[in-house]
Amino acid sequence: MGKLFAIIKREYLERIRSKWFIFSTALGPIFFGIIVIVPMVISSRTRPSPDLSHIVILDATGTQLGLRVASELAGGISANEPSRAVVRDVAPSELAQAESTATREVMRAQNPVMGYLVLDSATLAGKSERYAGRNASALVDVKEIEGAVQRSLLAQRLEHEGLQPSRIKALTDVSLDMSSERLTERGREAGGLASALFSYVLAFVLYMMLVIYGQQILRGVMEEKTSRVAEVVISSVSTDALLAGKVIGVGAASLTQMVLWSLSSFLVYKGRGAILAGFGVPNVQLPLPHIGPTVGLLLLIFFVLGFIFYAALFAAMGSTVTNEQDVQQASMPVMLLLIASIVFVQPILLDPTSSFSKVMSWLPFSAPILMPLRMTMIQVSGMEIAGTLAGLLAGCAITTWFAARIYRVGMLMYGKRPSFREMGRWVRRST
Fold this sequence. Notes:
The chain has 431 residues and is an alpha/beta fold. It has helices at 2-16, 19-45, 65-73, 95-107, 121-124, 139-160, 165-172, 193-226, 229-234, 239-270, 272-278, 293-318, 325-342, 345-350, 355-362, 367-375, 382-410, 420-430; strands spanning 55-59, 86-89, 115-119, 130-133, 181-184, 187-190. The longest helix has 34 residues, at 193-226. It folds into two domains: 2-40 and 188-430, no CATH class; 55-172. The model is unreliable at 76-80 (pLDDT under 50). The relative contact order is 0.10. The chain has a four-stranded mixed β-sheet with strand order 2-1-3-4, sandwiched between helices. It has a two-stranded antiparallel sheet with strand order 5-6. Helix content is 66%, strand content 6%.
């Protein structure tokens, strides 16, 4: 036990004293603040292009819908400047030729026309409209044009039913800000955007910590093997104790960094009002979802078990290589498991109660990331959490058993990197 503690202490102190650890710990909250605050600043300053109304409208509807759209693009009846859109009434049979002409106009460099909009019978039916232009990849511009067509078509239909234009504007000009709250057994909690954002950041941090510190374990094992330090250590301590000490020590360092990140990120969150005010952006009320002691403890357990699961695999792969060139190839099978977990974050964010979400959060390799994601979004039953933890514990036991046997032989093997078949023989001979 004393030797195990000595290994844990060495691995832990070696990492928290490094310049990389200090630098990344200090820079972490700044990074998380940037990925939260910068999108707010950009979205608050994102506006449609000032030349948005410099388009050609090909109106093949025969209902003067193009004139309405041109008016909407200029700001409607109360606009201070007239629309700069050119409306051309064309017959449906002449639409193809009119599009060819408009395309040539837009493609001329000296022409200020941004693009052309096609309104036809499909537009009148409320199905589709077509736009082509130099700003077609600008989502804000395209969304503005789409909204102008929708508002114009709605106004035209209501006028056809006998409503006055001024009355139509008063009835249809509605803008609502929707707030959402999550109801759980504890009562009302912050929901919607706050829960989704917090859950996404949590899943991203868990993934990043597993990747960063897992790679550290892999490279550390490889360096000890190539420098022959492992041979000296193994002569006085068992390989199982060496593997356990490395996993626990590095895991404690990663947990320390997560705690420091959480505390400093909370301070950044509290001071977001002053930071946003410096950019001229009003403070956004984004309450944090309630994370009780039980949920917090479960999140910690999932991280610890997930770290053991992946750290053992990274250490086993590190014991099979002797040079830097083989490190990436050796880590690829483990990285694929992590990547397979993180790519399903968005589908689970959209529907955390689906059968697919439940199945993915039960699998041992994805449970450390996806189950905490679901737990911070919805109320997960105690039976489901217990089953997931049992499966993850079984997965940790199996991977640790295999990794210990590969590690025991691999640390003393040199030369060509072994194949998976050869590693299987190592496991069988070590049992």
